[in-house]
Design a protein that fits this description.
Elements (H helix, E strand, L loop, with lengths): L3 E5 L3 H19 L7 E5 L2 H10 L2 H17 L4 E4 L8 H7 L4 E2 L2 H10 L4 E5 L2 H5 L1 H11 L2 E3 L3 H13 L8 H16 L4 E4 L17 E3 H14 L2
Parallel strand pairs: 1-2, 1-3, 3-4, 5-6, 5-7, 7-8
Helix pairs in contact: 1-10, 2-3, 3-4, 5-7, 5-10, 8-9
Enzyme class: isomerase
Protein name: Aspartate racemase
Pfam family, one: Asp_Glu_race
């Protein structure tokens, strides 16, 4: 098995979920005592979050590129970024390393198309929902029509991510907020919903949603393991 390099820490709560999923899928695929060979580099989310608020995507790209280079020097054969939002600067990562980089939207887009979904709702940070780096890739590569919540719902989704989930706080009241937002997307014609922030998997499970759930964290981790196994 090849070695998966993970840029984590955004937040560490979801990065720990990545670690669990990588190893669980490796064991499912290979059996016995197998784990996924991996390296995890945890960045300091405080500086990342500050640069996000400031809109300094150039600095963020440099931070992600530096982390990717460290992973490659450490022996990573593949690099993944354990966050949806920071894929805004994925090109900086790709240009900084010689090993492959697995974009988080690609396993999700492929899974949606395989399921016959054409119109999908997207939940994530305000950056992911409002900027085009994510929805554009889904449209251009997978032909998906992506719906995002209205402004008030986007504010609620974003606030819960940063103020609660990034700190490990999983509240029933916030789950009900997300369920309401998903219902609004369904009413607008969404056939499924993307959990487009790696923390949302801590709050919303398939049984919590009126729409089929496509969890980017789980799909990304599974695709990385499949690549590392190489079959």
């Amino acid at each position: 098995m090849k070695t998966i390099g993970v840029i984590g820490g955004m937040s560490w709560e979801s990065s720990s979920e990545y670690y669990r999923l990588l190893n669980r899928h490796a064991k499912t695929r290979l059996g016995g005592h197998h784990n996924a060979r991996s390296l995890l580099l945890t960045v300091d989310f405080a500086s990342i979050e500050a640069n996000q608020r400031a809109g300094d995507w150039q600095a963020l790209g440099e931070q992600m590129a530096d982390a990717a280079r460290q992973l490659e020097r450490g022996g990573a054969d593949l690099v993944i970024l354990a966050t949806n939002t920071m894929h805004r600067v994925y090109e900086s990562i790709e240009q900084a390393i010689t090993v492959p980089f697995l974009h988080i939207a690609d396993p999700t887009g492929a899974a949606l198309r395989a399921a016959g979904v054409e119109r999908v709702g997207l939940l994530g940070t305000r950056y992911t929902m409002e900027q085009t780096f994510y929805t554009g890739r889904l449209r251009e590569r997978y032909g998906l029509d992506t719906l995002v919540p209205d402004d008030d719902d986007r504010a609620d989704v974003h606030r819960i991510i940063y103020d609660e989930l990034c700190h490990g706080n999983v509240e029933d009241a916030s789950r009900k907020v997300y369920q309401r937002v998903i219902e609004h997307l369904a009413a607008r014609g969404a056939q499924a919903v993307i959990l487009g922030c790696t923390e949302i998997t801590l709050l919303i499970k398939p049984e919590d949603s009126v729409l089929p759930v496509f969890d980017t964290t789980a799909l990304h981790a599974q695709a990385a393991v499949e690549w590392a196994i190489g079959e």
